[in-house]
Design brief:
This protein is mainly alpha-helical. It has a domain of 26 residues. The longest helix has 27 residues. The protein is elongated and about 65 Å long.
């Protein structure tokens, strides 16, 4: 097999594409996993908590 520039570019683009697709699937599975709902809801509310007090 001849490893010229075109072959390496094709391999890196293909590997990068499948890597990003796989990573996206893993992240979406983590986000929509039912047991993580409580921690995400807590994080969403914690930003708004203690908003009416002066900052010190």
């Amino acid at each position: 097999m001849d490893l010229d520039h075109g072959t390496l570019v094709w391999f890196s683009k293909s590997f990068g594409l499948f890597y990003l697709i796989g990573l996206s699937i893993v992240v979406l599975a983590y986000v929509y996993w039912p047991s993580n709902k409580k921690s995400f809801d807590k994080a969403a509310v914690s930003i708004l908590r203690d908003e009416d007090k002066p900052w010190r």
